[in-house]
Amino acid sequence: MTEIIKPGSSLEIFARITHSLQEGKIIGLPTETVYGLAGDATNEHAIATIFALKNRPSFNPLICHFCSVQHVLEHCEMHPDLMALSQTFWPGPLTLVLKRKKTSPIVPLVSAGLDTLAVRIPDHPVAQEIIERYGHPLAAPSANPSEAISPTSPQHIYKAFGENPALPFIVDGGSCQVGLESTIVDLTQERPVLLRPGQITCEDLKKIIADTCTTGDVENARIRAPGMMKRHYAPGIPLRMGATSVQPDEALLAFGQKDIPEGARCTLNLSPAGNLVEAATNLFKMLHALDEPYYHAIAVMPIPQEGIGIAINDRLRRAATPCPAIKGA
Ligand code: TXA
Ligand code: MG
Q1: Which of 275, 245, 282 has the alpha carbon at shortest distance from 257?
Q2: Using CA of residue 166, residue 169, residue 174, residue 178, what is the dihedral sign?
């Protein structure tokens, strides 16, 4: 019922994908960051299906994916920083929150009723070709059930949502190169505000727009951003950060070659060379692999708080946040 397909240059497969999107179906979409659950942003049925599939609260808006800045400007108001940012970082792992145009046919639920829209142009040839052929923007949250670990391979999506008639295709675009969700910058406040750290760092942004908020402002920004949940990206078993020792029933997620604690039941290494970019690419893949009920917990070694390490630690912190206590249990 749910097919994993590699489109290559097959026109027939692209035609089938387009047809499914026209019917309001959802597809698993490869991007350079993580896989998305994509549907036509102008189709109410498709958007409602995405929220239902993910069990996503309706106050948490979705990102719209475009193939050109001109296309973005059909739906969003111009902003003085848009051209410089888009020329530097698009296509790529940067999402911008802009004021939406009143005339935009994008359904209000996409932006959870807000008058803003989060937009990006993904740097993945398959995603670009699908969006270009389809013609409408695609709304796509990361393709994981709400709060769970984001997917970086088609198999992760299949495991979570496969054999669902609303999801006829998971498009195989290989493993995601970046491995962490896009950096989000809100351009609708007085000053640009970094809402979610990612591969593109605050320092990268400051080179282009001098007045981006510092990381000190991020806590405030989180409170304003509707989807910045405390618990997110979480495996089914507990996760603890900054581990310098392990228990025999724990799985270890190591980093680098030095000071690796011994005695874990299983060890995977995010980057033996201590490379943070490689660690980001491997993070969700390895969390998925270690998320097995026969481990008591996942212990993660300390990750340097610099460059993309800031985004890795942000995801780990949310993954380590315990489930809220179940009332009456
Ligand atoms: O890399 C990515 O951004 C991936 C790929 C698939 O593009 N997508 C992704 O989507 O991470 P999602 O839904 O998992 O995360 C989107 C985040 C949420 O935290 C949401 O609250 C925020 O973007 N967001 C969306 N629209 C917004 C808006 N209008 N204002 C503020 N935050 C917004
Ligand atoms: Mg997500």
Answers
A1: 275
A2: negative
Residue from 193, 258, 182 nearest 225 by CA: 193
97 in ligand 1 pocket by Cβ < 6 Å?
Answer: yes
Contact between residue 302 and residue 244 where contact means Cβ atoms under 8 Å apart: yes
Query: The whole model's pTM is what?
Result: 0.93
More confident residue, 229 or 270: 270
Q: C-alpha angle 17/15/158, rounded to 5°?
A: 25
Helix (H) or strand (E) holding 242: none
Q: Whose CA is nearest to atom 20 of ligand 1?
A: 227
- Determine the residue of 90, 95, 107, 182 to mutate for testing ligand 1's pocket, defined as the one with the most ligand atoms within 8 A of the Cβ atom: 95
CB 126 within 8 A of CB 19: no
Nearest CA-CA partner of 193 in 248, 131, 118, 105: 118
- Give, for ligand 1, the residue of 50, 62, 178 to mutate: max count of ligand atoms closer than 8 Å to Cβ: 62
Provide the 8-state DSSP code for 259: S
Confidence of residue 213 (pLDDT cuts 50, 70, 90): low
Contacts of 174 (CB under 8 A, 6+ apart): 30
Q: Atom 18 of ligand 1 has which residue's CA nearest to it?
A: 227
The partner residues of 119 in beta bridges, in order of sequence, read 64, 96
CA separation for the pair 285, 294 (Å, rounded):
18
- The neighbouring-strand residues paired with 53 are none
pLDDT tens, 99-143? Answer: 999 999 999 999 999 999 999 999 999 999 999 999 999 999 999
